[in-house]
Design goal:
By secondary structure, the chain is α+β, with helices and mostly antiparallel strands. 48% of the residues lie in helices and 25% in strands. It folds into 2 domains: 1-38; 45-201, Nuclear Transport Factor 2, Chain: A (Roll), CATH 3.10.450.100. The longest helix has 40 residues, at 2-41. It is elongated, with a radius of gyration of 28 Å. 14% of the residues are buried.
């Protein structure tokens, strides 16, 4: 009887251990599946930028327009976009452009030049490491020819391998009939006033 009792206890212990291993294994499987599902459902940087509905959620200020435009620019040059994503991003960028700027940049020419610039950027191992947007108090608003304009400076730091360089652009925006600030054009600050780096926010 003693032998049978010991044998029964050993068998029970083995069964319990197998059940524990099975339960732990199944729990790990569920956790991993949940993590994979969460990762799959988390929007990418590009998807987050594309989620913005410019029809119903247009950036309210010149600074916010350029901030969103810079989000698009970073996707262009820093992210691995598919052809479809690139074209969707390009449409978002053009949604921020003034009609006069659009008239001078027809879609076919615009997308051809954009793709060439992005390819050249990547071929030269460049990456945008930081963007410094001027503070809201440094936005220069003025009226000209019956239109309301705004100028804002933006600094870009570019990495090329281990080398770093910087450039400053001045954006000119014009308010349209709907009260939206649209990008009218831009130029390098060095062509305007010596290229002083903006002191402001990222």
């Amino acid at each position: 009887m003693k032998k049978k009792k010991v044998k029964f206890t050993t068998q029970t212990a083995i069964i319990v251990m197998v059940l524990i291993v099975a339960v732990v294994g199944y729990y790990c499987y569920l956790v991993n599946r949940s993590n994979r599902s969460a990762q799959e459902n988390t929007p990418t940087t590009v998807e987050n930028v594309l989620l913005r509905d410019l029809e119903n959620n247009y950036p309210p200020t010149p600074k916010e327009v350029i901030r969103y435009y810079n989000d698009i620019v970073k996707c262009f040059y820093n992210e691995g976009c598919s052809q479809e994503e690139l074209q969707e991003l390009a449409r978002k960028a053009r949604g921020l452009y003034d009609q006069e700027l659009l008239d001078h940049n027809e879609w076919d020419t615009y997308i051809f030049n954009l793709e060439a610039e992005i390819q050249d950027f990547k071929n030269n191992n460049r990456k945008i490491s930081n963007i410094s947007l001027a503070a809201s108090t440094d936005v220069d608003e003025f009226t000209q020819d019956g239109f309301r304009f705004a100028k804002i400076r933006c600094g870009y730091n570019i990495l090329q391998g281990r080398k770093s360089s910087s450039t400053v652009q001045v954006y000119l925006l014009r308010r349209d009939g709907d009260g939206h600030w649209k990008i009218y054009g831009w130029d390098l600050a060095e062509n305007l006033d010596g290229g002083k780096q903006p002191e402001g926010e990222d």
